[in-house]
Amino acid sequence: MADIAAIPLTRIDGSADTLANHKGNVLLVVNVASKCGLTPQYEGLEKLYTEYKDQGLEVLGFPANDFGAQEPGTDEEIVAFCSANYGVSFPMFTKADVSGANKQPLYAELIQAVPTKQGDVDGMKERFKGYGMTPNDDPEVLWNFEKFLIGKDGQVAGRFAPAMTPDDPALVKAIEKELAK
After folding, report:
1. Is the pLDDT of residue 150 over 70?
2. Is 117 helix (H, G, I), strand (E, B) or coil?
C-alpha cells in the first residue's frame, strides 16, 4: 500500500493539498453529492466537524458524480450549494471519481486498506434496487456518503456504509476512540 499521506490532492478552490498537511488529526474522508437522497448528511457532517474540530477531527469532503449522476455541478456550484444549504466549513476537494477504473489514487488506497464497510449494506442495496439503481459491491465504494476514518497515525481505522449517518453511535464512538489516542 502506498503512503496515503503523500498522494497529491486538489482542494475545491484549486490549491494543492495532501493528507500529510493534516498530520496528527483524525480524518473522516467522505465522498459527497448535492443531489442524492443522502445529501442531508452534509448537515450532520458539519455538526460533527464543528463539535470535534477543536479536539483534532477534520471532515474532508470529496464530491463525486459516480452514482446516479448525483453531483453534476462544477466545483464552484458545489461550493455555493454546500455553503447556502448546509453552511459547510470543513475542507472540500475538487470533484473526482471514487469508484471504477479512473478512481482517484486516494480512494484506490483507502479501498485497498479496508475492503469492506461497516453498517447496513444489504438493506441499502435492497432499497436501491427498489429505485432501479445498482450500487457497487465490495471492495468498491457503495454509493455517495461512504465514510473512511483515518487515525492520527495516518492509518485507515474504519470504513462506514453510506446509510450510516454522521450521528450514528458506532461512527461517533470510532471517531472518539481515534481522538483519544
Report:
1. yes
2. coil
Name residue, grid cell 470510532: 174
Active site residue 36: yes
Query: Could you tell me which CATH number the domain at 4-180 has?
Result: 3.40.30.10
Q: Read off the C-alpha cell for 125.
A: 442495496
Phi, psi (deg, nearest 5) at residue 13 = -90, 5
- Global pTM exceeds 0.90: yes
Going from N- to C-terminal start, the domains of the chain cover: 4-180
Q: What is the mean pLDDT of residues 100-123?
A: 92
Q: What is the dihedral of CA 179, 170, 133, 88, to 10 degrees?
A: -40
> 103-133 burial string, b = 16+ CB within 10 Å, else e?
bbebbbbbbebbeebbbebeebbeebeeeee
Whether 1 has a pLDDT exceeding 80, the answer reads: no
pLDDT digits (tens, 9 = 90+) for 48-57: 999 999 999 9
Q: Residues of the chain with pLDDT > 90: what percent?
A: 86
Which listed residue (19, 36, 60, 174) is catalytic?
A: 36
